[in-house]
Every structure is written in C-alpha cells, then in structure tokens.
Amino acid sequence: MMTTRITSRTLRSYRVLMIAPTSFFADYGCHVRILEEAQVLGRLGHRVTVVAYHNGNPVPGLDIRRTMPVPGRRNYEVGSSRHKIVFDALLGLKSAQLLASERYDVIHAHLHEGALIGLVLGRLFRVPVVFDFQGSMTAEMVDHRFLKPGSAFYGTLLRLETWIDRTVSVILTSSAYAARMLTDGFGCRAEQVRALPDCVNPDVFKPAPQHDPAEIAALRDRLGIPAGRKLIVYLGLLAEYQGTSLLLEAMRRLVQDHDDVHLLLMGFPSVDFYRQRAAELGISAHVTLTGRVPYALAPLHLALGDVGVAPKLSLTEGSGKLLNYMAMGLPVVAFDTPVAREYLGSDGLLALPGDAGSLAECLADSLFTQENAPGLPRFGGGRLRQRAMQNFNWEAAGRQIVETYRELLGDSAVARIPGRSWAVSEVPRSGRGGK
Questions:
Q1: 217, 270, 364, 432: which sits with the fewest CB atoms below 10 Å from its CB?
Q2: How do beta strands 307-310 and 349-351 pair?
C-alpha cells in the first residue's frame, strides 16, 4: 500500500495552544487523550503548549503553562464542581496572556469549557479553533449528579452547550457515536464534525508475555493478591456513573459460585467509600483497591489480569480504558453502549446496561468458558489487540489532527494523509444488550 511520507518540505510546523480545563496531568480519562494528542503532535514536528489548571503533575518534555493557584483549593477536581467557574476564569485569563505574548496558529480546545474560552479568545486574537469533544457537557453533569434534567439551570446550560457545538468551526469527537449525536441531536453540520476516536499505544500497552515475569510476580505479591485466583482488572475513575457499585455487586454474585476470582480495582477518587461498600457486600477478601495508579505503571498492573472490565454507564463519553485492555490482549467485558460496540466490534462480551447480574454472567463466561470448552477462543483477546493496532493508532490520529489544522487554516498544499478516519455514516448502531 502506498503511503505519504511526512517531511518538513510537505507540511509546515504549527504552533498549537491546547486549552485543557482540568488539573492536567492526572492519571485518568480525558487527561490521557490530551497527553497522547500533544505528544503525537510533537513527534510529527509541531510545537504544543498546554494551558491547564494550577494543579496537576508535570510531564517530561511537554510545555505546560498553568493558571495562578486558587486559595484553599489544592486538590484535584474530578468531574463537575462549582469551583470550576473560578478555575475556568483563571484559565481564560492565562490563555489570553499566552495569545497576547506568543504566536499560535491554532487553538485546540478540550471539553466544552475549553471550547467556550477558545471561541471568545479565537475571535479576539483571530486564531482558528478546533474543539476536541469528549462527551455532552450537560449529560456529564447529570452523570455526576451535579445537575437535574428538566431544571431551569439544565435548560440554560443545554442552550449554551448547543451554541458552542454549532458555533465552533471544527469538532473532533472521541467516538463515532458522538459524531452522530452532534449532527442528529445538536444540529451540527456533518462537514463540521470529524470523528477521531480515542487511541492507544500498543508498544506501551502490550500483552503480559511481553513483560518481565519477575516484575509481574513481584507486583502481584506486593498487592497481596492470593495465589491461584483469576484476576479481573479495572483501571479508571471510581464513580457511580462509571458503574463501580454495579461492578462490586457483580463480584458479590460471581464469588457465590466461584471462590477463586479476585477484582483489582484501580483508580480514584472515593477509595474509602468503595472499600466500605465491598465490606458491606462481604467481598473484601476478593477485592483489592489500589488508589491512583500512575499512567506509566498502568501496563504492568493490567498485565496481572485475566480479563478487563469497563462497566461505564455514560452514553456520550468515550472509554479509553477499553482500548488499553484491547492492546494488552485481554478479553474485555463492558456494558452494551454504542461506544463499547464501536471499540470492541464483535469480539467483546457485552452485558445488559446497568444489570449487575448480566455483568457477572459475562465475567464468568470470560473467565471459565475456556476451561469448560478448551476448543473455544478466549473471546477475542488476540483479535482485540489486532483491532486496536489497526483502527485505534495514535500516529494515524495525529496525522488526521494535522490535516484538520491545514484545512482549517486554508494551507494550499493540503495532503490527504492515510489513516483511519471514521465517517458519521459508519457509526455502529447499538442493539439489545447481551453476549
């Protein structure tokens, strides 16, 4: 297959101001997308400056500019919070200072708060804006129980969200389902929306046999996971909309029939809450909560697993953890959502959304069917890795982002660059949940 070689002669280098309305970098969700996009753009020869909240971990080699601190607010902000109004005001101020003092070719704004800041400052400084959409703003607020559907405040925020979506020139979405949602539900123009699904680095997230067995054994010992137990791994935020309580209930049901299973529950916040919940369900001896796991250590921790689980309930957000599991070559169990179907194709096990019993059945099938029927494949672990490598590759995604910049800026020598680019018409339709 003929490919296009990217050189400084064919593509000029861009200065990108990436607005990240979050405590970047933390080890979850949207932070990983921001990090990977910034890094791949750097590898392609572009200069990226990330402007973010005052809190957050440094990333070697990445130019991060931060807002001034907010007195009394030293912790990370996860999800919706009234304090974010102040954070976003400071983020807008810092972004304006950067645009006034340095030259940028494009504003790459993440999340709706970033897009709103980008729209205002883009017009003021005459810099085009790309909106990196990772889910509905109002839907996320409802998921986080920060907002009630039907309230006056909900209506106001929904109108603001709709205005942002329709006003920005180009939207990159974290899933093909989100692209259809924007055109069908929010009235965006089809040519305005570009699906850019989350991706994964398969050289970093690689199957357990490619890791040092001694390191894997030592980590399992440090975590105190009993020998001989089949291990279910989860890595992400701990929250109700992430399905954490449903996962614990599924474990309770699973343990009733299978005493040799264990759940490695990795992530934050609310670790103490879910540890207490596991105790109330009588499954503490079968659950290990690690708290925050640094992103650099995520592959080794996932290498412990026999199956990856992602019981996320949100219908609008991406689910990058699925891609990490896939690249690790793990069988994957998730609730049947459009995004899960888009990522997993026909090789994952899909449980009825919100049904702990169905989730437990899928986990049991993944862990034990192979023993009962040795001739059957392990529900696509190897095929899922191949799917991740072929369809969800950051290098191809980075070239797609650069092509979007070129088209937006009207550069004359726009080169069509090979790589996976989902059309809205390709969005998988979600059917009835099941296996």
A1: 432
A2: unpaired
Residues with Cβ within 8 Å of residue 227, at least 6 apart in sequence: none
Cross-strand bridge partners of residue 309: 333
pLDDT in tens, 205-247: 999 999 999 999 999 999 999 999 999 999 999 999 899 999 9
Q: Identify the CA nearest to 308 among candidates 319, 292, 317.
A: 319
The helix (H) or strand (E) run that includes residue 332 is strand 332-335
CA distances from 352 to 238, 244, 362 (A): 20, 15, 10
As a whole number of angstroms, the distance between CA 43 and CA 203 comes to 15
Question: CA 175 to CA 181: how far, in whole Å?
Answer: 10
Q: Residues near 343 by Cβ (< 8 Å), separated by ≥ 6?
A: 175, 197, 198, 319, 322, 323, 326, 392
Element (H, E) at 308: strand 307-310
For residue range 368-386, list pLDDT tens digits in order: 875 444 444 445 678 999 9
What DSSP state is assigned to residue 211? Answer: S
Could you tell me the pLDDT band of residue 350, with boundaries at 50, 70 and 90?
very high
Output the CA torsion 313→314→317→319 (10° steps). Answer: 0
Predicted TM-score of the model (pTM): 0.84
Residue 425 structure tokens: 């018409």
Q: How far apart are CA 129 and CA 106, in angstroms?
A: 6
Measured CA to CA, the distance from residue 106 to residue 111 in angstroms comes to 16
Joined tokens for residue 236: 């992400």
- DSSP β-bridge partners for residue 63: 49
Contact 305, 233 (CB under 8 A): yes
The CA distance from 324 to 202, in Å, is 8
